[in-house]
């Protein structure tokens, strides 16, 4: 037998190839559409008059190419929207609007996930704890719908020494929560360090406060805000460190 002749699948083999391809995880996210496509293709395969050994190599190649094209078309129709949806989710909020947990509670959840080896959950909860602690210390104002990148940017203005670490933490959060990044123990350790560094940092006042109002200068209000933030820092819970 010539080695360059194409391998011709019979009906059962073609069905097996198609079923195996469509069992990949990304297709499960489009189950209703996938079911219709699978049923249509399988019905089509059942109706094919499969050739015997007398068909020429060119005809066999065209048939195989046709089956492969259908499988690839289904893969593109299903996986394309899934990947697009993942990309759009990358800008989702870092804290759910109905999540009323404190930073300490989020750290506890992160520690529990880390203890079980669930690094994805540990990393996500650890960064959420950082953002919640920033809200609790009045370094950033609570705002529904804030994304990880927005939280990092807002906090970085008040904590410039931690701005780079906050951006890295936001990138990590987006990658493991809404992308394809696989979290590791090292990622969790890096977020622990970020949490501790942010907790120890003291915010700087924002704005020059040059305007003058009826009751005094704008700089007085800026100083008062800075003093309030500093006072909140003194009363903030420090993040725990797990072995």
From TrEMBL:
Origin: domain of life: Bacteria
Residue ranges constituting the Protein-glutamine gamma-glutamyltransferase-like C-terminal domain according to the UniProt record: 126-195
Originating organism: Promicromonospora sukumoe
Source species taxonomy: Bacteria, Bacillati, Actinomycetota, Actinomycetes, Micrococcales
Transmembrane feature ranges: 60-79
Name the record gives this protein: Protein-glutamine gamma-glutamyltransferase-like C-terminal domain-containing protein
Region (Disordered): 202-243
Keywords recorded for this protein, A-Z: Membrane, Transmembrane, Transmembrane helix
InterPro entries hit by this protein: TgpA-like_C
Biased composition (Low complexity): 217-232
């Amino acid at each position: 037998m010539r080695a360059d002749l194409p391998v011709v699948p019979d009906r059962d083999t073609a069905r097996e190839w198609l079923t195996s391809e469509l069992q990949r995880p990304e297709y499960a996210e489009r189950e209703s559409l996938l079911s219709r496509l699978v049923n249509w293709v399988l019905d089509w395969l059942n109706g094919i008059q499969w050739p015997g050994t007398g068909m020429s190599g060119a005809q066999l190649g065209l048939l195989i190419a046709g089956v492969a094209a259908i499988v690839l078309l289904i893969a593109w129709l299903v996986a394309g929207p899934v990947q697009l949806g993942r990309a759009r989710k990358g800008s989702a909020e870092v804290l759910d609007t109905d999540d009323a947990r404190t930073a300490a509670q989020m750290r506890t959840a992160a520690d529990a996930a880390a203890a079980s080896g669930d690094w994805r959950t540990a990393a996500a909860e650890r960064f959420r704890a950082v953002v919640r602690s920033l809200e609790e210390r009045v370094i950033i104002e609570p705002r529904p719908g804030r994304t990880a990148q927005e939280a990092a940017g807002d906090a970085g203005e008040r904590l410039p020494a931690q701005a780079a670490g906050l951006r890295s933490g936001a990138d990590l959060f987006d990658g493991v929560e809404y992308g394809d990044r696989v979290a590791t123990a090292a990622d969790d350790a890096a977020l622990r360090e970020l949490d501790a560094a942010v907790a120890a940092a003291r915010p700087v006042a924002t704005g020059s406060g040059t305007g003058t109002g009826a009751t005094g200068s704008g700089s007085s209000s800026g100083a008062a805000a800075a003093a309030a933030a500093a006072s909140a820092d003194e009363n903030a819970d420090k993040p725990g460190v797990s072995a």
